[in-house]
């Protein structure tokens, strides 16, 4: 029997404790700015958030000026931004989800092919590309040839940004599925396509859904690529060929107008809560499946 | 007796020059149970998986020789047809996690795009689950997910899933290695029942299992088929010294 040195065990336990406390302290320090941001937004923005905030379009400078001089709250809301974000992001998702999933299936199934290497490299490249540059590309590809700023141009820019996230999350989720699942499907005489569509993708659903939600939440707040593509609009627009506003674009416009600047707080609060909600849903799904 | 399956000089390698199955020749009779035995790594699974062309999924694997299923070389047939004629049950139960019990049984039809009437579906589900002895246990929870079942039930579900397509040959890779003796027993009884309708090839590490259920036995060693013959004869009077040592538990 070896003699156990109790003092060294006590020392190690102490070290463990100290390490744990350090982790707790540091992570709460990191949480402080986040909580501070939320607190500030709520404090400065809650007054503006009311029913008209969700039903009326953004006010003009004149209206805001008059309300301010009368000492009233600025009238109007951000509904043109909300509908615009909804339109642009939905179309972007419609483009990016099927493309991204197919790309992810390919990467998971043929991990070593040359084409996969290229695709993987490209997704990394896109992921590292500043969003303004993606905006410039969408501007050159769509706005210039079609001669007009449009929601679809914005959607394509956002779709490009979503693609790498969806491709990679699809690939990772599929790679985690046991090989036996695919073999079981094929052993029944199924075609390869049917195994992918009816066995693999449904089994990977939670992972795919999480990836998609995270990709959506990632682009919902994007501003730079939309400035060059969707441009913005003072009215509610549902036509993908017309310039369209978004919540993020409205924040930028409000910021640039001394009479509207007070609106940035409420709009930012709304955008932050929206993205937070998307992230929480994604997290909830991950937790539910890993249990 | 009809020869449903014939292996001619079958060789399989994962890495060039290294044969996991080496020039195996054998003919397998219709409506019989053939057990494949041998120490771990001797190539049993590799041989079995060649018969329904599972190796094709992995391009590094090279196969030479012939496998004749009802006289046709399966390597020249459409793999989807081969796999429907030769069903497979894997070592670990692998029901489809997103499908209900009933849909697991019907998976072969759904995946092959074969449309069935509601009555036809119910009939297949009931008859297949009954033949694996699972019907009474699950008939009230057919819409529950297949993965909710116990390991033994899942394995029987997987057998039902393979049987639903009415294969001519059933390939089983240690189907009872993850099961308790009672569940194992039920599957053995089932196999004896099933051999009236089809031909079964079963890989097993359990020698008493092979002795109990199989008509013929193969003994493999390092990729070679050392001995192949009548089970009773092989267990009482093996021809090869290696077989004898293996059956006596001297290695493996
Ligand atoms: N995917 C693979 N890649 C490379 N070599 C492999 C692979 N699968 C099996 N082998 C090799 O092929 C040989 C036969 O393997 P196989 O799985 O057929 O053995 P087995 O008889 O089924 O063994 P066990 O009883 O342990 O299941 C072994 O030497 C193994 O190392
Ligand atoms: Mg094996």
Give structural notes.
The complex is a heterodimer of chains A (291) and B (252). With 291 residues, chain A is mostly helical. Chain A has two domains: 1-48; 80-290, MetI-like fold (Orthogonal Bundle), CATH 1.10.3720.10. Chain A is 76% helix and 0% strand. Chain A is flat, with a radius of gyration of 24 Å. The model of chain A has no long low-confidence stretch (mean pLDDT 92). Chain B is of the alpha/beta class and 252 residues long. Chain B has one domain: 3-Layer(aba) Sandwich (Rossmann fold), CATH 3.40.50.300. Helices cover 36% and strands 27% of the residues of chain B. The radius of gyration of chain B is 18 Å and the shape is globular. The two termini of chain B are 33 Å apart. The model of chain B has no long low-confidence stretch (mean pLDDT 93). Classes of the chains: A mainly alpha (291), B alpha/beta (252). The A-B interface holds A 178, 180-191, 194-195, 198-199, 202-203, 205 and B 52, 54, 57, 80-84, 87-88, 90, 92, 94, 96-98, 107-108, 110-113, 158, 161-162, 165.
Indicate the topology.
The complex is a heterodimer of chains A (about 290) and B (about 250).
Chain A: H1 6-45, H2 51-55, H3 61-69, H4 79-109, H5 114-128, H6 131-146, H7 151-176, H8 179-187, H9 192-203, H10 205-220, H11 224-227, H12 247-255, H13 263-290
Helix pairs in contact in A: 1-13, 4-7, 4-10, 4-12, 5-7, 6-7, 7-10, 8-9, 10-13, 12-13
Chain B: E1 3-15, E2 18-29, E3 33-37, H1 44-51, E4 62-69, E5 72-73, H2 79-85, E6 86-89, H3 101-105, H4 107-111, H5 118-131, H6 135-138, H7 151-163, E7 169-173, H8 181-194, E8 199-203, H9 207-213, E9 216-221, E10 224-230, H10 231-236, H11 241-247
Parallel strand pairs in B: 3-8, 3-9, 6-7, 7-8
Antiparallel strand pairs in B: 1-2, 1-4, 4-5, 9-10
Helix pairs in contact in B: 5-7
Bound molecules: adenosine-5'-triphosphate (ATP) and magnesium ion.
